[in-house]
Amino acid sequence: MVVTKKSIIGEVLDADMETAQYFLAIGMHCLGCPASRGESIEDACAVHGTDPDELVEKLNAHFAKKN
Questions:
Q1: Per-position pLDDT tens, the chain of length 67
Q2: d(CA 18, CA 46)
Q3: Which residues contact 33 (CB under 8 A, 6 or more apart)?
Q4: Long-range CB pairs of 9-17, under 8 A, 24+ apart, other chains included
Q5: What is the DSSP letter of 64?
Q6: Alpha carbons 22 and 24: distance in angstroms, whole number
Q7: SS3 of 3-55
Q8: Beta bridge partners of 40
Q9: CA-CA distance, 52 to 46, in Å (whole number)?
Q10: Is 27 left (phi over 0), alpha (psi -120 to 50) or beta?
Q11: What domains are defined for the chain?
């Protein structure tokens, strides 16, 4: 999976639940909420005041290790 800022959080989590650790590490503790699962990474990072590019980089590195 290739993650972008436009990727939907629920789709990333569905692809690999281990990615939850990266969201939790930046304060996104609402991963079970139906609204958050439908949000893009970019939108969620804006709400939480975090850098979406940094999160995307970590998520892509995670998926790269899996392949």
A1: 999 999 999 999 999 999 999 999 988 888 888 888 899 999 999 989 999 999 999 999 999 998 7
A2: 22
A3: none
A4: 9/36, 9/37, 9/38, 9/39, 9/40, 9/41, 9/44, 10/36, 10/37, 10/38, 12/41, 12/59, 13/37, 15/63, 16/62, 16/63, 16/66
A5: H
A6: 5
A7: CCCCCEHHHHHHHCHHHHHHHHHCCCCCCCCHHHHCCEHHHHHHHHCCCHHHH
A8: 8
A9: 8
A10: left
A11: 9-66 (1.10.3910)
Tokens of 22: 């990266």
Residue type at position 67: N
